[in-house]
Amino acid sequence: YGAEMTYDYYLYKHGRNSYDDQGAQLMSYVHMGQNMQNAFWNGSAMFYGDGVNNYPYTFLSVCGHEITHGVTQYSANLEYQNESGALNESFSDIFGVMIHYYATDTLQWTIGEELNSPFRDLSNPNRFENPDTYLGNYWVTGTEDYGGVHTNCGVGNYWFYLQYYRLILFLFFLSGAFFFFFCCSAFLCLTKFLSR
Q1: Annotated catalytic, 144?
Q2: For residue 127, what pLDDT band results from cuts at 50, 70 and 90?
Q3: Could you write out the three-class secondary structure of 63-126?
Q4: Alpha-carbon torsion 159, 161, 165, 168, what sign?
Q5: Helix, strand, or coil (residue 30)
Q6: 14-18, 54-58, 76-80, 178-182: which range is least confident on average?
Q7: What's the confidence (pLDDT) of residue 54?
Q8: Which residues touch 173 (CB under 8 Å, ≥6 apart)?
Q9: How far apart, in Å, are the Cα atoms of 49 and each of 120, 133, 134?
Q10: Cβ distance 167 to 178 under 8 Å?
Q11: Number of neighbours of residue 181 by Cβ within 10 angstroms
Q12: Measured between alpha carbons, how far is 65 from 55 in angstroms, rounded to an integer?
């Protein structure tokens, strides 16, 4: 379901035919490892671990996140380390949230909420020890985690959240149409302005 909703989101909201925009099949492998609490994109397919109590990490925000790594690979091709790697992770978080909203009509700013144990929060990155500003609190330096890609993504995540709410405050009401306006902004940034 998550892969299907992700495919539909990119096709119907952005006119993109799969992660490569050439109709590539979405290959997903579930129940990887034993109690592996993770999911990942390997360059051509998604892999989802067993998770907790044999409940695999195939929920909407994570499926959207992992497939977006493919979109990034075939568009901006951001190097997966340091700041560009953090942007790669951030775009995946942003689109994970957007795909969840597209499929459920519920705006949820966290990744992993479906398991009742979120691990990133776009509205408050500091909640999970992610920075909300460049070089701010919780900023990771060094080589661990490819230069902190899973932590420093909080800066881009918070940027998206703030842009969304600035528009809402300006317009004084909430509407899904405006949310998708910002989705399109992030999509254009990823696929056109940062592309090879």
Answers
A1: no
A2: very high
A3: HHHHHHHHHHHHCCCCCCCHHHHHHHHHHHHHHHHHHHHHHHCCCCCEECHHHCCCCEECCCHH
A4: positive
A5: strand
A6: 178-182
A7: 72
A8: none
A9: 18, 31, 31
A10: yes
A11: 13
A12: 18
Between 88 and 166, the higher pLDDT residue: 88
Instruction: Note if the pTM is more than 0.85.
Output: yes
Question: How many C-beta neighbours within 10 Å does residue 189 have?
Answer: 17
Under a CB-based contact definition with an 8 Å cutoff, are residues 190 and 160 in contact? no
For residue 66, indicate whether it is catalytic. yes
Q: Other C-beta atoms within 10 Å of 148: how many?
A: 24
Q: Which two tokens stand for residue 156?
A: 């881009």
User: Residue 108 to residues 25, 95, 175: CA-CA distances in angstroms?
Assistant: 28, 12, 14
Residue among 120, 125, 106 at smallest CA distance from 179: 106
In the numeric block, the tokens 């949820």 are attached to 108
Distance between CA atoms of residues 30 and 47, nearest Å: 6
- Contact status, residue 95 vs residue 63, Cβ threshold 8 Å: no
Set 65, 129, 144, 150: catalytic member: 150
**Residue of 14, 66, 89, 100 marked catalytic:** 66
Q: Which two tokens stand for residue 29?
A: 């492998």
